[in-house]
Amino acid sequence: MHRLHRESTESSESSESSETRTAKLSAFPGLAPPLDPFRSTVMQMQVSSLCRHAGRLVPPGRAALPRESFGRPSATTTRRRRTRVTVHGFNNNGNQGGEVLNRVVSSVPYLLPLFDSLRYGRFLMLQIPLIGQVLAPLNPLIQLYFTVPFASLATFFAIYLLIVNNFEWDRSVRFNAMQAVLLDIVLIFPGLLESVLKIRPTGGIGLQVYIQAYNAIFLFVLVAVAYAIGSNIIGSTARIPLVADAADAQTR
C-alpha cells in the first residue's frame, strides 16, 4: 500500500511538473512543445463551433485570432470618408478673380448718374477747375456717351436688365447697380421741374439761387458716386441717402 501511494504521488508530481513546464514554455512560442494532434483537432472544432454560432465560419485549419479591443473597428471595415478642402487666401485665383470682378461691376453703373449730372456741374467746374481735371480721364467715355444717340437710355436698360435682374450676380452687385439706376432716376426730377416751370433767370437773386441749386445737385451726385465707388474698392457696401432703402427693397 505504501508503495502504491508513493507511485501515485510521484505520478501526480510528475504530471504537475510537466504542466508547469508546459505553461512556462508556452510563454515563449519558440520553446513551446508541440500540442497533441488529437487535442489540437478537438480545440479547433470547438473554436469553429463557437464562431459558427457567432455568424462567422472559421475553417478548421485556421485558428481565430483574438481581438485586443472590441471597441476599435478593424482597418478593413473602417469606411474612408472623403474630406473636401477649400483653400482661402491670396493664392486662390478663382475667389480673388471673382471678388475683383464683383467690385468692378458694382462700380461701373455709377458712371451713368455721374455722366447725367454733368449738366448741373458747369457752374461748379468753373469755380473749382480741379473737378474737371479729376474727371479728365473719363473724357473719351463722356464724349461717346453724349455723341451716340439714345446712349443714356440704352445704358440705363442694360444696367437694369443685365445686372439688377440677373440673379447670377451677387446681391451686393445688384444692390449697387440698383442704387445707380435710382440715383439716375432722381436726376430726372430737377430737369423736369425746370422744363415745366421754365426757369431761366438772367440775374439777381434768382440767378444765384439757380446756380446754387445746380451746384448742390452736382455735388450731391459727385460725392455719392465717389463714396459708392470707394466703398466698393475696399470691399464694403455704400448706402446712399434717398435711394438705399428703395434699392434694398428691389434686390431682396
Account of the protein in words:
By secondary structure, the chain is mainly alpha-helical. The protein is 64% helix and 0% strand. It contains 12 helices and no strands.
Features:
64% helix, 252 residues, elongated, 12 helices, mainly alpha, single chain, disordered N terminus
Largest sheet: none
- Please tell me what the overall shape is: elongated
Estimated radius of gyration: 46 Å
Number of helices: 12
- Strand content is under 5%
| Spans where pLDDT lies below 50 across 5 or more residues | 1-35, 54-94
What is the N-to-C succession of helices and strands? Answer: HHHHHHHHHHHH
Distance between the termini: 110 Å
Class derived from helix and strand content: mainly alpha
Mean pLDDT equals 75
State the helicity in percent bands: 55-70%
- Counting DSSP E segments of at least 2 residues, the number of strands comes to 0
Provide a quick synopsis of the model.
The chain is an all-alpha fold and 252 residues long. The longest helix has 31 residues, at 204-234. Residues 1-35 and 54-94 have low confidence and may be disordered.
Protein topology:
Elements (H helix, E strand, L loop, with lengths): L1 H25 L10 H17 L39 H15 L3 H6 L5 H6 L1 H6 L4 H9 L3 H14 L6 H16 L1 H10 L6 H31 L9 H7 L2
Helix pairs in contact: 3-9, 3-11, 8-9, 9-12
